[in-house]
Structures are given as structure tokens and as C-alpha cells.
Amino acid sequence: MRIRTKFYCAILTLHFISLTSLSTHAQTRQIQNLKSNSPVCSLNNRTPYIFSAAPSATAQNSSRIQNLQTDVLRVLVWNVFKYKRDGVYSDLSKLKNQSDLVLLQEAVHRPDIETYFKSHFPDFSQTFFMSFCDSDASAFGVQNGSRFQVLNNQSWPAPDSEPFSTIHKMSGYSEILINGQRVHVVNTHGLNFNAGSPFQRQIDDVAKRLKNVTGPIIWAGDFNTWSNSRMNYLLGVTKKLGLSHVQFKNDPRGLVLDHVFYRGLNLKKSEIIEISTSDHYPLLVEFSISEKQKSESASQSSAPKLTKQQNTNPLHVQ
3 and 55 in one domain? Predict the structure, then answer.
């Protein structure tokens, strides 16, 4: 009886594997057939996709703010949960009015979503950094939106993938120019289901790229620091880079996954917005830039060097 039971279990397991394999192949064919419908899904995951404004327009947008002689940089960091919940677009549009730099994780790119950003963020340049595409040719990754001129964009996929998949979580790098000040910005979505070394390798990979960068840095995102070991490792790496960790008073989060680290800027205020249109709360952080910081950055700032695998020609669309 025990042998017969094991035999039936083996047959059912083989049948499940066969069905899973067929489903995977079908989805792969479907993605290949639909890729032509999405400009992002036709790119490799090392090519940033820029939309909402052409490069010349981003410089013009930057001038609009620079003419106000602002030395303030307002940053929104939010995991938008793939825009699944009702009201998320309305909240995002409201938060945009309090932000100059919008860093989104679990962002999605489709033609309809691109249209939303072009309509509701007309003075922002958007850069989408793709992690993967699904069977409906929707792209998933991180997205950096900036009111200021964007000088450089780079995609930094995690060295490892999530278990049993080919999904490499993404860090999107942007170098922005604010009133003569170059600021290096990294938006990271941390590996989630890996234990130990893959997460550490992702953090180390970003740190290695930032090691020789001079000038102000903002490194923010959803780091998936769901354990003390992950949190301690991240804090150790950022401390070596000379980054400070933004703290939030009366933090309502039970599990703290989202963080903002910075260097070469003055922290003015930080706030957590308690809304329910995502499974993460948005973080709002405001920095200021001193004249001394501007002069030092203008003479010293340098972007991370591209690796051989990285694409130096991001795709721009209007």
C-alpha cells in the first residue's frame, strides 16, 4: 500500500512538472509575441527608458526651477504596489505637488501608465529601469522622476535573481543637476526572498559603484530589510560610504523596509504619509544645499563608470 501511494505521488508530481513546463513555454511565447507592443519590454534590462520629456525639454524644466534660485530638494520614496489599489494615482498626483524627485519601486510601465505620467507630471522627466516583463508585456521595475535636468542614467540589476526565477531586482541611478549642484541618486528595490549572500551581493554591488563617486548622494528605496541581519548589513555598508540614515519621528511602520540614506546634503525634514493605496507608506524627505556644497560638487562630482554590459544610450521618447 505504501509503495502504491508513493507511485501515485510520483505520477502526480511528474504531471505537475509537465503542466508547469508547458505553461512556462506558453507564457514565454506570449511575451515574445507581445514585446513589439511595448517599447520597454523590447529593451534589455540594462537600458533605461526615458519618457515624458526629451533631453532638451529636461534642461528647460530644470531652468524653470533654477530661476527660482531654489536650494531645496524634496524627495518622495514610495513602493506603489504595482498600482493595484484604488486611489493610488490620485494620491501620487497629490504627492507630486510636494516633490521634486519621485523614486518609485514596484513601478509598472504600460502605454496607459505612460500617458498618465505625461499628463499629470508634465514638468518631470521620467526614467524607467526595467527588472522584468510579464506575459501581458507590462514592464516592472523602479522609476525615477525629476523636475531637474537629468545628466546621466544607468540601470544596475542585482547580481543574483530571486529564487526559482530569472528576476533580478533593479537599482536605477540618475545624476541630476539642481541649481548648479550635481546630485547622485540611486533608487533600489532589494531582493526579497533570498536569504543571506544574494542580498548582500546586491548591496555590495551598488556600494562598489558609489565608492569613488564624489559629491552629494541619495540612496533610497524599498530594501526589503525584513530581518535584523539584513538591516545591520545595510547600515554597515552605508556607514562605510559616509551616508547618514534618515530617521522618522513617530514611525507607524511595524516592519521597516523603506529607507533614505544621504551624504553632502542638509536634512531639513522627514515625514511618513499614512495612506492605504499601497502596502507601503510614502516617505517624504526635504534636503537643502549650501553654497559651499554647490561649489565643491561642481568641481569634484563624477558619475559611476559604466560596466561593459551597460548601455550608454538610454531610449528617449516624447
Answer: no
Are 102 and 76 in contact by the 8 Å Cβ rule? The answer is yes
Q: How many domains does the chain have?
A: 2
CA dihedral 226, 230, 236, 237 (to 10 degrees): -100
Residue in the structure block whose three cell numbers are 530589510: 225
210, 243 in Cβ contact below 8 A?
no
8-state DSSP, 39: T
The rounded distance, in Å, linking the Cα atoms of 100 and 98 is 7
pLDDT tens-digit profile, the chain (318 residues): 444 444 334 433 444 334 334 333 333 333 334 333 568 998 887 899 999 754 444 444 444 444 435 789 999 999 999 999 999 999 999 999 999 999 999 999 999 999 999 999 999 999 999 999 998 889 999 999 999 999 999 999 999 999 999 999 999 999 999 988 999 999 999 999 977 799 999 999 999 999 999 999 999 999 999 999 999 999 999 999 999 999 999 999 999 999 999 999 999 999 999 999 999 999 999 999 876 666 665 555 577 876 544 544 455 554
227 with 254, same domain?
yes
Half-sphere exposure of 56 (CA within 13 A, CB side): 1
Amino acid at site 44: N
What is Dmax (Cα atoms) for the chain? Answer: 83
Percent of the chain with pLDDT over 90: 67
Residue 210, number of CB atoms within 10 A of its CB:
20
At CA 74, angle to CA 264 and CA 78, rounded to 5?
Answer: 105
101 and 29 share one domain: no
Which residue, among 291, 124, 265, 244, has the nearest Cα to 184 in the 3D structure?
Answer: 265
Ordered strands of the 258-263 beta sheet? 149-157, 170-178, 181-189, 217-222, 258-263, 244-245
Asked if 72 and 164 sit in the same domain, the reply is yes
Whole-angstrom Cα distance, residue 145 to residue 186?
Answer: 12
